[in-house]
Amino acid sequence: MRIGLVGFGVGGRLFHLPYIQAASEWELVGVVARAESTRASLAEAAPGVEAFASLDELIDAGVDAVVITTPPATRRELVLRALERGVHVVADKPFAPDAETARELIAAADAAGRVLTVFHNRRWDTDLVTLRSVLDSGALGPVWRADFALEQDDRTVLDQGPDEGLLRDLGAHVVDQLIQLFGPVARVDAHLDWVGMGDERVDVGFFLGLHHASGVFSSVSSTKGARRQDRRMIVTGLEGNYESHMSDVQYEQLLAGLRPATDADTWGVEAEERWGVLTVGAEPIRVPSLRGDYSDFYRDLHRAIASGTAPAVTLDEALHTVSVLDAARESATTGERVTVAPLPH
User: Fold this and answer.
1) Of 264, 320, 188, which is closest to residue 18 (Cα–Cα)?
2) What are the strands of the beta sheet with 50-52, ordered from one edge?
3) Please, what is the end-to-end C-alpha distance for the chain in angstroms?
4) What CA–CA distance (Å, rounded) separates 4 from 78?
5) In the chain, fewer beta carbons within 10 Å around the N or the C end?
């Protein structure tokens, strides 16, 4: 199938292009890139891939699907236009600024009869894939609590404005991860760290308490302003606990010049010294890293379109994640615990 990429900033260049190129099921037709500097970056990263001036020009070139990875404020209009033109769509996260807009996009996809999915690529993070295998083994027994953190020392890549910020950026990822592991969220307690005033006000940190309908309680925190780096996954159950402090493996490999298409043997595997630790008896057990690969998102997308079945990231799940983020905003504003609408059955 033929696919096009709309936008070639950091997200398009590092989090989409390498994985589309690694998924042999897809032919990359072109990239919407207007600025000369962006086109030069595209020519260096993907020689021979054509640059287009607009979404419509890209679709006119003949594509089955497009990936919308432009800034959040522009995303709604582009998703709606792509669906109107009759192509399948991948929307980058955050899927929408609020649940109302998410429902609008879902309705448009239903009306168009096209696949719309969201790039929750961190379901394929190395640490999450490895943790899922530990949970699937049953070694922890019934799970009580989970503690996740994604702390980054970088204030430069946050989109400004009251509808942007870290909660809807990294928060969309970690909330989706926790929902995948422990099921829908019933109630939310939240705190946000803010900088700026008025229309320039933006959250640069958050702490969420998620009460899952399954009975599991998970806490998740993140910041881009505390001058610290940390990735933490700690899960506690009746029989013991699992603790992981793996790195952001795939991102670090990209920065080192590796690519999933050409370095498949070592791609997405954590170094042994950073393996997670399972403690269910007298002696802790090092758990070997499994392989994480965001290319699997694009392989799954191809399967869903070809077979007419649901993609891995369903619209019900994407809407629930946005609803949890809405509830977190409300909780942080009011100081109250907020109930989240349940997923449809």
Assistant:
1) 264
2) 50-52, 27-32, 2-6, 65-68, 88-91, 116-118
3) 32
4) 13
5) C
- For the cut 90, the answer to whether the pLDDT of residue 46 exceeds it is yes
b/e code 311-327 from CB counts within 10 Å (16+ = b): bbbebebbbbbbbbbbb
Two structure tokens written together for 332: 């942080």
Chain mean pLDDT for the chain: 94
Going from the C-alpha of 310 to that of each of 114, 170, 194, 300, 305, the distances in angstroms are 11, 25, 38, 9, 8
Q: Does residue 198 carry a pLDDT above 80?
A: no
What does the alpha-carbon distance between residue 34 and residue 131 come to, in Å, rounded to a whole number? 41
Residue with tokens 């800034």: 71
**pTM to 2 decimal places:** 0.95
Task: Give the angle 100-102-105 at the CA atoms, nearest 5°.
Answer: 115
* C-beta separation of 170 from 204 below 8 A: no
Q: Which amino acid is at 68?
A: I
The 3-state DSSP class for residue 120 equals coil
Q: Which tokens in the block code for residue 24?
A: 């042999």
